[in-house]
Every structure is written in structure tokens, then in C-alpha cells.
Specification:
13 strands, single chain, UDP-galactose 4-epimerase, domain 1, 33% helix, alpha/beta, Rossmann fold, 300 residues
């Protein structure tokens, strides 16, 4: 039985990963402050990664899955406190690539500030650098938009709410802007491939090979609940994040490295059905934004 340390374990990706690896037969340890319910079957290490006071130094892990590292200090403070471990996998972000870069982004593409993501992206760049300086053979995964069960961000859940209320959907322009997704289950399965096969490439863009237009995405979200959307196109010069789940920013990752070791990803149809089923039971766990209020006041 392999021992894996997961940072976090109580919200979206880290929570899903904790449950996934418990079900996969791993001995799962989670590091968090114990302010939220824990996943059944995990072993809790209660603490703040910035103030661990040596609680990790006598422990050993086959894998460290660092899902909650957002900046350089997050990396430095955890790595300094770790005892023995085998692999280190960090979940980074596609936000490390500047919006003006040549697309599709390759792993070797320029990393710099992205005007849409700001310090989130530059902090991830610094975290990656700090990790590679300290753990030469670490793995770094850069996903696009993650989705699926346990997603507490108001993205697909917003569209589900529109569908459930039989609302018209206010679509930015013609809805042609494309988005790239990756289901959280695929992320965990890819991590397991890395754990078992130790692939040669240590920095990977990850995601579905194909991007999808926002109109197609909304349509599939509605269809996952047995609904068909009626669209209203918004051509006015209005910041679309006031009424839609994503920035007005289209980007595309080259995931060729991932495809060599993990070629089959969950279809968007099946992935959204999975997300919708979870949402119907857990809608209160999503951090909702006042999109409806803005739409009703300014667009309807």
C-alpha cells in the first residue's frame, strides 16, 4: 500500500483527490487545519503548512501531492519540513502563460504575467521555480479549467442553475470563444500514471485535447440535465465576468506530452453529467456569484 500525502483535502481538487486515492487503495494522509469535514478514510495531519513545527519530519511518504501550493512560500515552507518522500507532484496552472503568447502553449513557452490572472499566475511561476530548485525531479502539471464533482467555483454550476430554472442564457457575443477543460477524475488518473510509470517528462500541460466553444459548453451543461438552452446574445461592451463564468480570454494548451502517457480523457458529455449529478445533491457547497442579479437588472 503506497502512502500519499495530499495538501488540503477539504475543497474541490484536493478533496476529490483524497477520496480518489482512498478508493484506489492508497494510505492517504491529508495536511490541513481541520476546519472542514474530512474525507472518509484519510489520516489527518492537522496543521498549517507555514507553521508545522516538525510534525512531518518523522513521517515518510511514497508521494507528495501538493495541490494547494499557490506561491513560493507555500513550496519553501513545506519542502523544508518534509521528511523522507519519493515523488513530488505539484498542481500548477495554465495561468503561468501570458495572454499574448503564441498558441497553443507548449511547456517551454514563455512564462510571464497574464493580464487576466495577474498575481495568481506569477505566484504559480514562482512556486514552480522554488520547487524545481529544491526537488529536481518533481512533476509539475499545468491544467486549464478543471471541472467535475466537488467544484466549489461557480462555473458549470451557474449554467446548471440556469437550466434548472428554465432561464434564457445570456451568451457573450456569438458564443464562439473556446475553452479547454480537464475533468478532476482525469487529473487524478493521470497522477496515478505518473506515480506508477515515472514518465520522462516532468512538466506537463494537461487537459482535453480539444477545446470547445462556450455555446457548445453551455448546451452540453443544459443537456446534462435534460434541458435545451434558449440563447440571448450579448454584444454590448459589458465585462462578461459580470454575467458569465469566464473571462473574455481564449487560450489553448498543447497536451501532446500528456497524450503519450494518458491518451483517453473523459468526454465532456460524460464529465458534465458527472458534475451535474453531484451538484443536484450538493448545491449548497458551491460559492455562488450574483450573476442572476446582474442579468435581471442590466440585461433582461
Amino acid at each position: 500500500m503506497k502512502k500519499i500525502l495530499i495538501t488540503g483535502g477539504t475543497t474541490f481538487v484536493s478533496k476529490y483527490a483524497a477520496e480518489y486515492f482512498v478508493n484506489a487503495g492508497y494510505e492517504v494522509y491529508v495536511l490541513n487545519r481541520n476546519t472542514k469535514p474530512q474525507v472518509r478514510g484519510v489520516k489527518l495531519i492537522e496543521g498549517d503548512r507555514h507553521n508545522l513545527k516538525g510534525i512531518l519530519r518523522e513521517l515518510s511518504f511514497d508521494v507528495v501531492a501538493d495541490i494547494t501550493a499557490y506561491n513560493e512560500k507555500d513550496i519553501v515552507d513545506l519542502v523544508t519540513e518534509l521528511g523522507a518522500y519519493g515523488q513530488y507532484i505539484m498542481i500548477s496552472s495554465s495561468a503561468v502563460y501570458p495572454e499574448y503568447g503564441n498558441q497553443p502553449f507548449l511547456e517551454e513557452s514563455e512564462k510571464s504575467v497574464n493580464k487576466f490572472w495577474g498575481t495568481y499566475g506569477t505566484d504559480k511561476i514562482a512556486a514552480e521555480k522554488a520547487l524545481l530548485e529544491r526537488v529536481k525531479d518533481a512533476y509539475i502539471l499545468r491544467p486549464p479549467y478543471l471541472y467535475g464533482p466537488m467544484n466549489n467555483v461557480y462555473r458549470e454550476a451557474f449554467v446548471f442553475d440556469c437550466a434548472l430554472a428554465d432561464r434564457k442564457f445570456y451568451l457573450p457575443k456569438d458564443g464562439d470563444m473556446k475553452l479547454q477543460f480537464f475533468h478532476v477524475k482525469d487529473l487524478c488518473k493521470l497522477m496515478e500514471v505518473i506515480i506508477n510509470e515515472k514518465p520522462e517528462n516532468h512538466i506537463l500541460n494537461v487537459g482535453n485535447v480539444e477545446a470547445v466553444s462556450i455555446k457548445e459548453w453551455v448546451t452540453k451543461c443544459y443537456e446534462s440535465l435534460g434541458k435545451t438552452p434558449s440563447f440571448v446574445n450579448v454584444y454590448e461592451d459589458i465585462e462578461q465576468r459580470n454575467y458569465f463564468s469566464f473571462y473574455n480570454y481564449e487560450y489553448y494548451l498543447d497536451v501532446s506530452r500528456q497524450s503519450k502517457i494518458y491518451p483517453e480523457t473523459l468526454s465532456l458529455v460524460d464529465g458534465l453529467k458527472d458534475a451535474a449529478e453531484w451538484y443536484l445533491e450538493h448545491s449548497a457547497e458551491v460559492n455562488k456569484k450574483p450573476y442572476f442579479e446582474f442579468i435581471d437588472k442590466n440585461l433582461a
